Recover the amino acids of this structure.
């Protein structure tokens, strides 16, 4: 038995197929503290049996997989057959692909550069006091990336809603031909924002980038 086998046994003995646990609850099951990396890096929770023996002992050997929310220190364990429907449950924790917000920004920049057929870089738009995550050399394209999730997996994030509104306002201050926000991690955040304030948006496109599926979806205006 490995160091993390107690967690695997706990999952195996459960009658549930989806289980949401705080990191403190995981530590209680294990009987020892998680390493600092588990609370800091999403990659620690990756479903990789080759380089993560703790993952193999802790959940993979029992046919479970994880999705983690570092912000709220929560991990969702799901039986493999439940992975396809986990996004419809209150236990949803976004993105099966374990990446950071910075990594998402870089992947989104690469994707949107291909989407618009122009290289995009972080930079300032003339006259706007903001460094945007993505802007073309000719200033025709300008956008920002947001990697958000609902609070505790299901509640609206008011501070993040305010940040979205601020960025929409800043983008509207530009005269760029294409202005956009691209979201990752939890599609419900931009969807809920658009339900409330979408009618006020003037010329800013909202996209959701599903990294796991490698596809993009436009959330307002004409669907792709």
């Amino acid at each position: 038995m490995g160091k993390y086998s107690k967690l695997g046994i706990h999952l195996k003995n459960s009658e549930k197929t989806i289980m949401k646990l705080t990191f403190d609850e995981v530590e209680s099951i294990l009987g020892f503290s998680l390493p600092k990396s588990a609370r800091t890096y999403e990659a620690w929770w990756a479903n990789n049996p080759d380089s993560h023996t703790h993952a193999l002992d802790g959940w993979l050997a029992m046919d479970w997989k994880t999705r983690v929310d570092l912000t709220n220190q929560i991990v969702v364990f799901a039986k493999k057959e439940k992975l396809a429907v986990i996004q419809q449950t209150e236990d949803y924790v976004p993105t099966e692909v374990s990446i950071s917000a910075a990594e998402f920004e870089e992947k989104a920049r690469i994707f949107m550069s291909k989407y618009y057929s122009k290289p995009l870089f972080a930079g300032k738009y003339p006259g706007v006091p903001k460094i945007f995550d993505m802007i073309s050399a000719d200033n025709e394209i300008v956008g920002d990336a947001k990697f958000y999730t609902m609070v505790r997996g299901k509640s609206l994030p008011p501070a993040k809603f305010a940040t979205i509104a601020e960025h929409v306002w800043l983008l509207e201050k530009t005269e760029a031909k294409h202005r956009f926000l691209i979201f990752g991690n939890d599609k419900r955040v931009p969807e809920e924002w658009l339900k409330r304030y979408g009618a006020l948006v003037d010329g800013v496109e909202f996209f959701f980038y599903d990294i796991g599926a490698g596809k993009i979806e436009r959330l307002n205006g004409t669907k792709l």
